[in-house]
Design a protein that fits this description.
The complex is a heterodimer of chains A (316) and B (400). Chain A is an alpha/beta fold and 316 residues long. Chain A is built from 10 helices and 15 strands. Chain B folds into 2 domains: 144 residues, abc type-2 transporter like fold (3-Layer(aba) Sandwich); 197 residues, no CATH class. The chains are: A alpha/beta (316), B alpha/beta (400).
Chain lengths: 316, 400
């Protein structure tokens, strides 16, 4: 039996944008499902900000389509369901928390009891109820970030766009912000965030899209990306008690490989299966008369995927 | 260390165009403006002329000679010249009261003496002195000319030259009774203030409005600067991603800045009433009309400048230059009647001149509000035009 596929919360198809000779977006296509947390990664100049601005309706794409909940972005109805939190603290710092929240609530079209309810919710959600009547300008960076976030969701959007939501905040505040985002996600809000913190993306998102030079170069879960790009092999690093006198031969004669470098006390290699191959490697080294000082096994991470796909060159 | 601090400061200055402008160009610009106003640099040869109307109640040979002499004076500009012969004293007075003329020169008879009354608008403190001197001089020269001609008549009469007698037509001349050397010396030129009875010093209301308009402009550009701040910290992006449009944002700011401007000028005039006896309450209707349109125009100007600039620093530099220039040319700093005709014409391109003219009509001339129509129309049109220009420029912020 075939069930109709639900309309994605956000669908972007063949989005293109150029500034003169600079092609910021070259046909970006991806979807954000309802309730999904999608991390958007890319080196500097990859086109992330342009894409976010297009999604927020602040930049007009040269070509392509954006649909929010099945409706074109230009539709006023569609934009009611979009929340946008810019990278900067885009607040009125000379107003209080409550005044900022009320102002943005009104800008999003909330009135009277609905606004009151959302204000109470936002103050509780951010944990700033006791600081509701304090000027935002007197807050720490982390607290300002929380108010910044709350002002973008006063209207309970179905989709939330976050541009680097944790820039410049301490680990405790980051944790708090992600707890807040988890609550939103659990309530069904789809979240698209850009970040440079790969660990954040790895831990806090359901799916990752990597953008490079205006194009999507990877799209999927972390496991899928790892498998597609760097594979599932583990890196093993051994530190031995003295420098190698010659590289070590590993494997059968027909497909033997040499590992290690003469004169160095470290050996690195990749193995497919930790449970069998790691013990064999250790045994080999010991048989050759070397003592093992330290062993490190590293699974491929988003960091490896990112560098593998986008390269090691600086993009500044 | 000290040298390094100096080097860094110098390099930063060279990289900051606004600061360079404010440090080196603005002082020169202001010096030039005031040099032009007071030194007659620009518009040389167009020294300020005083607008006068004349009334000849005597209508004698001497009075006509005086009128003729006055018309040759370069410091006077005759308005309604074609109607001059038919003007009555009261009509002339009305022309002074409504600002068409700065002064009415009325030649009359007082105690059988030829006298001149100068119906003056005391708000122009220079005109009375200048016109008084000019009229005195013209009377004396005309009398002397007449007496010389009289001597000629006597000679002709003695020599039987009947033609000369007919030409001078003094057979029944009233001047003969009024003239005499001793009377000439005590000839009376009286200045009659037809505007200022019982009013506060005209300079007070003029400066109240002048300073108010100047600070209205500063306030408006400050308010416009908030828009640039919002853009710089991405609040503008955020606002535009909500259901608010740029139209609503600009209109909201325009009305807010206008309301603050009205309040600002209102407080200033209230202070002027309490401390300097400017009659605000008695002119509330005209004051409100002028203040609302002036504030609308200034707010539109502030938004226009803000949308024209890229940064707050640019706006600060540009607004200081423009506002001080407009204030200098428009009469907020120096009364426009001190400027040459040409500079007075340039002044009409500023808000300040139109606003000050309007406030003068309200507080000094006490004209009915329909007399404010030109000022209201120009200021309102300017406000709307600047707002539309700001809206056009702001398109680039909406969707790049």
């Amino acid at each position: 039996m075939n069930y109709p596929r639900p309309t994605p919360a956000l669908a972007i198809h063949d989005l293109r944008k150029s500034y003169g000779d600079l092609h910021a977006l070259r046909g970006v296509t991806f979807c954000l499902e309802r309730g999904e947390r999608l991390a958007f990664l890319g080196p500097n100049g990859a086109g992330k900000t342009t894409l976010i601005r297009c999604l927020a309706g602040l930049t007009r794409a040269d070509h392509g389509e954006i649909h929010l909940g099945g409706k074109p972005l230009k539709s006023v109805e569609a934009r009611k369901h979009l929340g946008f939190v810019p990278q900067e603290i885009a607040l009125y710092r000379d107003l209080t928390t409550r005044q900022n929240m009320v102002a943005f609530g009104r800008f999003y079209g909330l009135r009277r009891s609905e606004l009151r309810n959302r204000l109470d919710w936002a103050l509780q959600w951010t944990g700033l109820g006791e600081r509701a009547d304090d000027l935002v300008g007197t807050f720490s960076g982390g607290m300002q970030r929380r108010v910044n976030l709350a002002c973008g969701v006063m209207h309970a959007p179905q989709i939330l766009l976050l541009d680097e939501p944790t820039v410049g905040v301490d680990p405790q505040s980051r944790q708090r912000i992600f707890t807040m985002l988890d609550e939103l996600s659990e309530s069904g809000t789809s979240i698209l965030l850009t970040t440079h913190h790969l660990d954040e993306a790895e831990e806090r998102s359901d799916r990752i899209v990597i953008l490079d030079q205006g194009q999507v170069v990877a799209d999927g879960s972390i496991e899928a990306l790892v498998k597609q790009s760097v594979g599932t092999q583990r890196w093993v690093r051994l530190r031995i008690d003295r420098p190698l006198t010659a590289p070590l031969r590993v494997g059968a004669a027909a497909d033997a490989a040499l590992i290690g470098t003469t004169g160095e006390d470290r050996i690195s290699t990749r193995i497919d299966d930790v449970s069998t191959h790691l013990l064999g490697l250790i045994e080999l080294v010991r048989r050759r008369g070397y003592g093992i000082v330290d062993v490190q096994v590293e699974a491929p991470s988003l960091h490896h995927v990112f560098l593998h796909l986008t390269g090691y060159e600086l993009r500044d | 260390m000290i040298l390094t601090v100096m080097q860094i400061s110098c390099r930063r200055l060279l990289h900051n165009r606004v600061e360079l402008l404010l440090t080196f160009i603005v002082p020169i610009a202001f010096f030039s403006i005031f040099a032009v106003i007071f030194g007659g640099g620009l518009g040389r040869g167009t020294t300020p002329k005083i607008k006068v109307v004349t009334v000849d109640e005597v209508d004698s040979v001497v009075s006509r000679l005086i009128m003729s002499a006055l018309k040759k004076q370069e410091s006077l500009r005759f308005v309604r010249e074609e109607e001059s012969s038919q003007l009555s004293r009261s009509e002339a007075q009305e022309l002074v009261r409504n600002g068409t003329a700065t002064m009415a020169i009325v030649l009359c008879k007082e105690a059988d003496q030829l006298a001149a009354q100068l119906l003056a608008d005391a708000s122009d403190q220079v005109a009375s002195q200048v016109v008084s001197a000019v009229v005195n001089r013209s009377i004396m020269l005309s009398e002397a000319e007449y007496q010389v001609s009289q001597l000629g008549v006597s000679d002709a009469s003695e020599s039987g030259d009947q033609q000369n007698i007919a030409a001078t037509n003094v057979g029944n001349d009233p001047d003969a009774e009024m003239l005499g050397i001793e009377e000439s010396l005590s000839r009376k030129v009286e200045i009659v203030d037809v505007m200022g009875e019982g009013k506060a010093n005209p300079v007070v209301s003029m400066y109240a409005s002048g300073i108010a308009v100047m600070f209205l402009l500063f306030g408006a550009t400050g308010g416009g600067g908030a828009l640039l701040e919002e853009r710089e910290n991405q609040t503008l992006d955020r606002l535009l991603s909500t259901q608010m449009s740029m139209d609503q944002l600009l209109l909201g700011k325009w009305f807010y800045m206008t309301a603050v401007g009205v309040l600002q000028v209102g407080v200033m005039f209230l202070w002027a009433q309490l401390v300097f006896n400017v009659d605000l309450v008695g002119h509330l209707d005209g004051f409100l009309m002028m203040t609302v349109v002036t504030a609308l125009a200034a707010s539109g100007f502030g938004l226009f400048l803000a949308t024209l600039c890229k940064t707050r620093g640019q706006l600060n530099g540009l607004s200081v230059i423009l506002i001080l220039t407009m204030s200098a040319l428009g009469g907020s700093m120096v009364p426009r009647y001190l400027m040459s005709d040409q500079l007075q014409q340039y002044g009409l391109w500023t808000f300040n001149a139109w606003a000050l003219d309007g406030y003068t009509k309200v507080f000094w001339r006490e004209l009915p509000v329909d007399a404010l129509a030109p000022q209201l129309a120009v200021l309102l049109f300017s406000g709307v035009a600047f707002l539309l220009a700001a809206r056009t420029l702001a398109v680039r912020w909406e969707s790049d």
